[in-house]
Amino acid sequence: MSKIVLKYNGKLLKRNGSSYLGYDGTPICDFNASGSSASQITINAGDKLNFYDTSLKNPTSWNWSLGAGSPSTSTVQNPTGITFSTTGVSNISLTVSNNFGISSKTKSSYINVQDIQLKKLAINIFAPANGGVTPYYTGVTWTPSGMSQRSWTWNYLCSDLMGQTPTTGCTMSLKYTDNTSSNYTVRIGTPVFDSAYDNGKTTDNNTGIYPDSVLKYSLVNTSFAPMILQKIRLSGLNTSTTYKLTFLASRGAWTATSRFTITGGTNKDGTSVTQSVNDNVMNTVNVTGISPSSGGIIDIGVDYTNSGGYINAIEIDEGG
What we know:
The protein is mostly beta strands. The protein folds into two domains: 7-114, Immunoglobulins (Immunoglobulin-like), CATH 2.60.40.10; 116-318, no CATH class. The chain has one helix at residues 212-215, and strands at residues 7-8, 11-16, 19-23, 31-33, 41-44, 47-49, 51-53, 61-65, 69-70, 73-74, 82-84, 88-98, 101-114, 121-124, 136-142, 150-156, 171-175, 181-188, 195-197, 218-221, 230-235, 243-248, 257-263, 272-276, 285-290, 298-306, 309-311, 313-318. It has a six-stranded mixed beta sheet with strand order 15-16-14-28-22-25, with no helix packed on it. The radius of gyration is 28 Å and the shape is elongated. The protein starts with 6 loop residues before the first strand and ends with a strand. Mean pLDDT is 81; it is low at 129-137 and 160-169.
């Protein structure tokens, strides 16, 4: 039996009753997520996405590979309600076909799933002594051991030059680590820390728990007699949520144990955690479930169990 294939103007013809329709042949694959033309879609962990086939030339079958999505594959034309729970980036691929051929497309790192807890506040205790205050420092990307790469905006608490008494009246409006504004402020309380140093232990290649520029700088309480609890005040906090506060204390080659105590009229007043500062580049301590005072305040007291009390950074998680 012979078979006749009809073409007109380079297009295949398919009979439709007594006439013929032109078809373009092999499809040209393309797709998007939620109708967006962006090269990368950023969502929070747990969010759902819809994917849409935008291929040309009438595909009749679809084979989706949806990275870390759940489900991770689909054979429908437009998969909907795909859940992404794992943080990181996903490549998304689609293969389409019809009677005339197959076409595929992959969009690398197309879906970027961020931990909702990344919307946090991160305070480096004071700005480097560079002749002026650097309120926000961006562009530091680092990969702590066992963690995925992160890039944060750090809030620097202003102070006088190193080795001098930090200013009590310095109040900073804080930004989240995704560089959006918050309603929070931070200030050094009264009495004040007696020293500010740049001798924190560093890694020289930003592989610590925080970047070297954060590990390096600290405020220090060396009020030996009498011992005074130096305070840092967080204000403007949401009284309808709880907070997790994470602390870093670090100094190179120095044996000391810092103590951080929650005060300020919270439900965790008097709760303390301690940390060795000696060559510390990877360890933090935290207090969770802190409800601010009715005025939206948490005070953090810094002292020591032996030698000086150091504080290099505070990390604030909403809902922690």
